[in-house]
């Protein structure tokens, strides 16, 4: 089968996040994050010491861009106040290593690892946390802005809000239900303030990474349609509408934000400042129905939706699933990209900032290789879905695989392997998987065409 092809100038990347790979949880002055508090699995894969080796794996594939994240408590241990010079020095070295190997750094300011000291003061329920992120942004851009020109403000605010504040499945495990909506608004304000700071320092390209997926009702029953619509508003549009439309999607969500109308209008003006690109993280579609009494909805999604809410997930029909149990439906990526284009006439160019799959890969065999044909098929299908969206008129400029390396999959631990590079438990030895070579060949083809 031939490799998919893309327009000239299309950029291929790999992605990671700080908490999932860095390790060195208590080294060189780093403060604790909410994830250090939530889980004792925080040794990572020692990227902090092995970054040069890891950058070689990224660069040797011909990758244009590397999306990583800064650890806020490594840079500013208490979230506000004294800066940890040794933490900044690490990112200085990482950026220089990437540039020396011809890879463009595309860092994310915030990928869920809030300093615990700020969580102790209310976390994202506290409006002041957004201002703290703006101060932290200034620290980073003033140090690295001479070499880093492309920035992502926030990652998947919907997951942080819904899993960490609405439920208790992720840090900080607040379990507030719809009382988590102020956390959504304050993260959006943080995005707006960070964008403002980055612009003031002359950043060339600014975006945000939002998780998006189609949400379908399980039937034509009006109750199911209404349940799916509410779920879509909460998980998709609560986070993109303020940025791209300067409004929230419905009255229920607006009423839960905890701000008056005048303050909301000012906040939305800040949140909706123009962006240079819009990041889309995609993994699987979702199907929703109105709850049926006595029906067991356990295990349908990565986390369970508690009883008492007006929507329940049902399994998405799919011939294949990842080993994480996620439905493999590449056409759903084409669909959501088309939906975003239709919903937002002013949609900036899109970058797929995360897409990938967990398979429980076996260690290197006698031939020294890690064979992962299912991941290759997954990536091939989803890249073809991106190509279909581009053919349909969606302006997609790049695609980043999640992830460069096997890593700590948040609450799911180390069993779930998303990486193009296999990381051996214990020794932490790195081995390029067959999917790494497949991705390298695709990038080589596209570089030759450009």
TrEMBL record:
Keyword Nucleotide-binding: no
Family annotation (InterPro entries): GH (IPR017853), GH_1_N_CS (IPR033132), Glyco_hydro_1 (IPR001360), Glyco_hydro_1_AS (IPR018120), Glyco_hydro_1_beta-glucosidase (IPR017736)
Active-site annotation: 156, 354
Keywords: Carbohydrate metabolism, Cellulose degradation, Glycosidase, Hydrolase, Polysaccharide degradation
Gene Ontology molecular-function annotations: beta-glucosidase activity
Naturally occurring in which organism (per UniProt): Winogradskya consettensis
Presence of the UniProt keyword Hydrolase in the record: yes
GO biological processes: cellulose catabolic process
PANTHER family recorded: GLYCOSYL HYDROLASE, LP05116P
Gene3D superfamilies: Glycosidases
CC terms in the record's Gene Ontology section: cytosol
Positions with a binding annotation for substrate: 20, 111, 155, 283, 402, 409-410
Entry EC no(s): 3.2.1.21
Reaction(s) catalysed by this chain's protein: Hydrolysis of terminal, non-reducing beta-D-glucosyl residues with release of beta-D-glucose
Similarity section: Belongs to the glycosyl hydrolase 1 family.
Pfam families: Glyco_hydro_1
Name listed for the protein in its UniProt record: Beta-glucosidase
């Amino acid at each position: 089968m031939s490799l998919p092809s893309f327009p000239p100038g299309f950029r291929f990347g790999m992605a990671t996040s700080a908490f999932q790979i860095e390790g060195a949880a208590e080294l060189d002055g780093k403060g604790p994050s909410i994830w250090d508090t939530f889980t004792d699995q925080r040794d990572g894969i020692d990227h902090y010491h092995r970054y040069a080796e890891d950058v070689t794996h990224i660069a040797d594939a011909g990758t244009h861009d590397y999306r990583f994240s800064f650890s806020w408590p490594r840079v500013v241990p208490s979230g506000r106040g004294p800066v940890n010079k040794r933490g900044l020095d690490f990112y200085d070295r990482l950026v220089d290593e990437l540039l020396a190997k011809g890879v463009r750094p595309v860092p994310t300011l915030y990928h869920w690892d809030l300093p615990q000291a700020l969580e102790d003061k209310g976390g994202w329920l506290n409006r002041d946390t957004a201002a703290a992120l703006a101060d932290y942004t200034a620290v980073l851009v003033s140090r690295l802005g001479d070499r880093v020109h492309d920035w992502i403000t926030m990652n998947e605010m919907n997951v942080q809000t819904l899993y960490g504040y609405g439920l208790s499945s992720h840090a900080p495990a607040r379990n507030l239900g719809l009382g988590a909506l102020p956390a959504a608004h304050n993260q959006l304000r943080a995005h707006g303030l960070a964008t403002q700071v980055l612009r003031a320092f002359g950043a060339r390209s600014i975006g945000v990474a939002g998780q998006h997926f189609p949400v379908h009702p399980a039937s034509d029953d009006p109750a199911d349609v209404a349940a799916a619509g509410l779920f879509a508003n909460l998980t998709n549009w609560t986070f993109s509408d303020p940025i791209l439309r300067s409004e929230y999607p419905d009255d229920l969500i607006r009423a839960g934000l905890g701000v008056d109308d005048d303050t909301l209008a000012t906040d939305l003006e800040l949140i909706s400042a123009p962006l240079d690109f819009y990041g889309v993280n995609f993994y699987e579609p979702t199907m929703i129905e109105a709850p049926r009494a006595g029906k067991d909805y356990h295990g349908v999604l990565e986390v369970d939706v508690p009883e008492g809410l007006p929507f329940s997930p049902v399994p998405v029909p799919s011939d294949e699933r990842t080993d994480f149990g996620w439905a493999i439906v590449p056409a759903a990526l084409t669909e959501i990209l088309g939906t975003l284009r239709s919903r937002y006439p002013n949609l900036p160019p899109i970058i797929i900032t995360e897409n990938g799959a967990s398979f429980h890969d076996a260690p290197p065999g006698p031939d020294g290789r890690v064979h992962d044909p299912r991941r290759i098929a997954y990536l091939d299908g989803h890249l073809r879905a991106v190509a279909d969206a581009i053919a349909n008129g969606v302006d997609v400029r790049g695609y980043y695989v999640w992830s460069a390396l096997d890593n700590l999959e948040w609450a799911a631990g180390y069993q779930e392997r998303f990486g193009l590079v296999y990381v051996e438990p214990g020794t932490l030895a790195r081995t390029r998987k067959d999917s790494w070579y497949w991705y390298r060949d695709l990038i080589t083809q596209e570089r030759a065409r450009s």
